[in-house]
């Protein structure tokens, strides 16, 4: 274990590269490889379950699955392979984003952020290896959930800790750079793993994800000395939480809860969309068949390509005193997500039961890429900046509880996909984006005032 972290004081900044702390780039590239492995796996897993794993001849081999299925069907009734896959993926993806709260608490109180990330990466590496075998499918999901819990919130909290508290603009841009690393991995993972699964089988696609998770761990250890150390011993020396701190915490929780709405408008493309594309989109272009997982690279590619122009735009707006704050960025993302779902529902209506051109899911995913780059980095930057230092990792972990709730709801809604028309299904997600934008318009100024309260406990 890397015990030197426990003795190190908290610090922000360090050696700089292109105007940002050097540690930022090691964290961003660590997330590139980690997200490559994660999104490469998630691009395959629903299709894998629907087309192979949950069918007779395979499902009997999964250790513990009969008991899990019985428990799920005792709550919802009999489930088709698609409904079962959707709900199981929603449960898995939800737990992936719930456990960072526990991982943040563990890091804040005992083992520290850096050690938590190392342990989490090792667990995820083991999980990706286990995913390559039918028998260990549920064990693989468990290891990935536990590893993500230790890694996700703690690596994001370290990004925020690289900057002085009052440097909001540069911190926000730092999170966009960090999210760009996420998006590069999210572009490459479905492309590489999807192609390998198509030509060499599902387990080859899952196996290569393990290799890139190991690359992420090596990257993190290489940049270890440039990363901030913030652990329980340092936390104990800070002031107790004040009434102002609790107001800030309450406002942050409100933002996280409201942001479930844009998350719902965005996240369904990881769950039901591959099945919908397989059923309703013309995938043959001449003699070439478009691999379904490739569509999940489009939103991440859009986020990556739009990051630099958006940073330029926000910098110019900030220089004129008109830059959107973090809450406004979340609201803009919600509106874009709503518009993307409206466009897809409209295309389905116009097709009148015919197969859609691939251009429509392509444009849908482009819109979701813009949704992500607006709302997710802004929420991480807001929480890491405003949360009191004593509970900073815990609050960043709480951001991921947003995705825990989102994925549970996405899985529950996805389990009803076969009972709805496609146009109604995607229109429902458009309504969620509209609701998120409206709520943030109404309450945004009050939340901004609450989050600007002074405190001796800010990082």
Structural description of this entry:
This protein is mainly α and 459 residues long. It has one domain: MFS general substrate transporter like domains (Growth Hormone, Chain: A). Helices cover 74% and strands 2% of the residues. The strands form two sheets. A two-stranded antiparallel sheet has the order 1-2. The protein has a two-stranded antiparallel ribbon with strand order 3-4. Strand 1 and strand 2 form a beta hairpin. Helix 3 runs antiparallel to helix 15, helix 5 packs across helix 14 and helix 12 packs across helix 14. The N terminus is likely disordered.
What series of H and E elements makes up the topology?
Answer: EEHHHHHHHHHHHEEHHHHH
Q: What is the level 1 CATH name?
A: Mainly Alpha
- Cα distance spanning the termini: 26 Å
Mean pLDDT equals 84
Shape: globular
CATH architecture: Up-down Bundle
The profile of the biggest β sheet is: 2 strands, antiparallel
Radius of gyration based on Cα positions: 21 Å
The count of DSSP E runs of length 2 or more, i.e. the number of strands, is 4
Per DSSP, the total helix count is 16
Q: Which percent range describes the beta-strand content? A: under 5%
- Sheet with most strands: strand arrangement: 1-2
Determine the fraction of residues in helical runs and give it as a percent range.
over 70%
The secondary-structure class comes to mainly alpha
CATH superfamily: MFS general substrate transporter like domains
Q: Provide the number of structural domains.
A: 1
Q: pLDDT under 50 segments (min length 5)? A: 1-13, 231-237
CATH topology: Growth Hormone, Chain: A
């Amino acid at each position: 274990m890397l015990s030197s972290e426990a003795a190190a004081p908290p610090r922000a900044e360090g050696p700089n590269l292109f105007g940002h702390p050097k540690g930022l780039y090691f964290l961003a590239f660590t997330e590139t490889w980690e997200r490559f492995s994660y999104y490469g796996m998630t691009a395959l897993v629903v299709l894998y379950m629907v087309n192979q794993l949950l069918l007779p001849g395979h499902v009997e081999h999964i250790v513990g699955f009969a008991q899990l299925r019985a428990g799920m069907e005792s709550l919802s009734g009999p489930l088709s392979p698609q409904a079962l896959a959707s709900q199981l993926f929603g449960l898995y993806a939800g737990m992936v984003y719930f456990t960072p709260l526990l991982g943040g608490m563990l890091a804040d109180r005992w083992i520290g952020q850096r050690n938590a990330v190392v342990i989490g990466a090792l667990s995820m590496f083991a999980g990706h290896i286990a995913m390559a075998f039918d028998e260990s499918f549920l064990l693989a999901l468990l290891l990935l959930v536990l590893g993500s819990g230790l890694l996700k919130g703690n690596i994001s909290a370290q990004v925020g800790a690289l900057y002085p508290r009052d440097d909001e603009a540069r911190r926000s841009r730092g999170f966009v750079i960090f999210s760009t690393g996420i998006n590069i991995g999210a572009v490459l993972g479905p492309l590489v793993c999807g192609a390998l699964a198509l030509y060499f089988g599902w387990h080859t696609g899952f196996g290569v994800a393990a290799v890139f998770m190991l690359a992420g761990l090596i990257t993190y250890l290489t940049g270890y000395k440039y990363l901030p150390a913030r652990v329980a011993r340092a936390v104990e020396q800070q002031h107790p939480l004040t009434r102002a701190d609790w107001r800030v915490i309450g406002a942050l929780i409100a933002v996280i809860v409201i942001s479930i709405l844009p998350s719902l408008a965005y996240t369904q493309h990881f769950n039901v969309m591959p099945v919908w594309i397989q059923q309703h989109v013309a995938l043959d272009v001449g003699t070439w068949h478009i691999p379904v997982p490739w569509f999940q690279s489009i939103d991440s590619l859009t986020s990556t390509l739009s990051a630099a122009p958006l940073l330029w735009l926000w910098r110019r707006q900030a220089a004129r005193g008109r830059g959107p704050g973090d809450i406004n960025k979340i609201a803009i993302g919600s509106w874009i997500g709503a518009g993307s779902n409206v466009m897809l529902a409209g295309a389905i209506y116009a097709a009148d039961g015919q197969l859609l051109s691939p251009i429509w899911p392509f444009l849908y995913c482009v819109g979701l890429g813009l949704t992500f780059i607006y709302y997710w980095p802004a929420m991480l930057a807001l929480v890491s900046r405003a949360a009191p230092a004593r509970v900073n990792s815990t609050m960043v972990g709480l951001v991921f509880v947003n995705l825990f709730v989102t994925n549970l709801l996405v899985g529950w809604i996805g389990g009803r996909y076969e009972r709805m028309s496609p146009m109604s299904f995607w229109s429902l997600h458009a309504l969620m984006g509209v609701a998120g934008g409206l709520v943030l318009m109404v309450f945004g100024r009050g939340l901004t005032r609450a989050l600007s309260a002074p405190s001796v406990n800010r990082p």
